[in-house]
Design a protein that fits this description.
Helix content is 9%, strand content 41%. The chain has 151 residues and is mainly β. It has one domain.
Length: 151
């Protein structure tokens, strides 16, 4: 088993302690994570963020429509980014842990910060900039739903 394969298996096993990672796609067999992406850094943030892709490339409009974003350590962060160039919008649904969500407009700087905890939902427009950081020693697990709105 390669180092990457072993790391991916370890990540899936750790996240499975907190949430069920099964997927039941329409008219297909039930399954689990299809790919683990390691972002070090993610959008210029600190630490490591893992994306657990639940859908294969080409299976849906885009494979990022439904993925888990995992921050294992306090301070792990997805830095400020926007989806405006891809004409996407995004929802974050906190499944476990706690973090600080920030949003801003490029022109006006930070316009809001909010503590997110289990059950919190955020909605980002395609033009907005946003970031998320794990603020506790607990694992922060966020389910990400990304729209794809072709122009």
């Amino acid at each position: 088993m390669s180092e990457t394969t072993a790391e991916n298996a370890r990540i899936i096993e750790l996240v499975s302690q907190y949430i069920d990672l099964s997927v039941t796609p329409f008219n297909k067999p039930e399954r689990t994570v299809v790919q683990v992406d390691k972002r070090n850094p993610m959008y210029g943030g600190n630490g490591i963020v893992y994306l657990l892709q639940m859908f294969a490339q080409g299976e849906l409009t885009n494979n990022r429509i439904g993925a888990y974003m995992v921050f294992f350590n306090k301070g792990d962060e997805a830095g400020f980014h926007t989806h405006g160039t891809r004409n996407e919008e995004e929802l974050y649904i906190v499944m476990h842990g706690e973090g600080e969500y920030s949003e801003m407009t490029k022109k006006d700087g930070i316009i809001r910060k909010k503590t997110l905890k289990k059950g919190s939902i955020t909605a980002m427009s395609g033009e907005g900039f946003h970031s998320l950081i794990n603020t506790t020693d607990e694992v922060l697990i966020v389910f990400v739903i990304t729209t794809n709105n072709p122009k």
